[in-house]
Amino acid sequence: MFITFEGIDGSGKSTQIYLLANSLTELNFTVKVLREPGGNIVSENIRNLLLHTDDIVEPRCELLLFTAARAQLVSRVIKPALDNGDIVLCDRYIDSSVAYQGYGRQLPIDDINIINAFATAGLVPDATFILDLAPLEASNRADSRFDLTSTSPDRMEKSGNEFFTRARNGYLYIAHMNPERVHVLNARSSIQDLQESIWKVVSGLLQRKKQ
Fold it and tell me: Which residues of 20-31 are buried (b: 16+ CB within 10 A; e: fewer)?
């Protein structure tokens, strides 16, 4: 089973992935937790280039680098794990490219869908959770995190409020167009409420897999 988590930075994806992984592990499932871009040496190198370069990265170049990292992750990590019967949880996947490079950078959505399908060999998640949060609140959460960890925002996190507003609207449209796969959750809800909403969907998927 393949489950992805989406949302603008600061929406709380990492927390919910961690909690879900723990719940599944307690039920004796083998769980692989991944992030995009990343999850293997090639993709982590691309991640470092994308997020920490001081050079200007053109939107098309950005899209192709993200999807190149995705192609490597799917081929080398995700697909083998799924073939082995593992459950894969991934922080970001194909919908990030549509929301960020499509709506955020305003590249053609149809082109992005074609590139995503090629990069992933058509692999689509069983379920996707979008943790929805207004950009200003997400920015405030991120600022608090930076203060606590003494870190600085990366290149994508510096994209600005207008960019993240477009990306958020993109996520909501993705959910509208994919109601069977995509579940929108209010990221302002409590951690426990979010965890319970996610588990309700995941437990339903597990039951269907048994049938």
Answer: bbebbeeeeeeb
Tell whether 211 is covered by a domain. Answer: no
Helices (H), the chain: 13-26, 41-52, 59-73, 79-83, 94-96, 109-120, 135-149, 161-177, 191-210
* Chain segment 50-79, per-residue pLDDT in tens: 999 989 999 999 999 999 999 999 999 999
Torsion angle of C-alpha atoms 96, 133, 138, 70, degrees rounded to 10: -10
Give the pLDDT confidence score for residue 152 in this predicted structure.
78
Per the structure, the count of domains in the chain is: 1
**CB 19 within 8 Å of CB 144:** no
Which residues, other chains included, contact 143 with Cβ-Cβ below 8 Å and sequence gap of 6+? none
Cα separation, 181 vs 20, in Å, equals 17
CATH number for position 184 = 3.40.50.300
Output the six-digit token pair for 203.
């437990």
Q: Is residue 15 part of a domain?
A: yes
State which residues form the domain around 135. 2-206
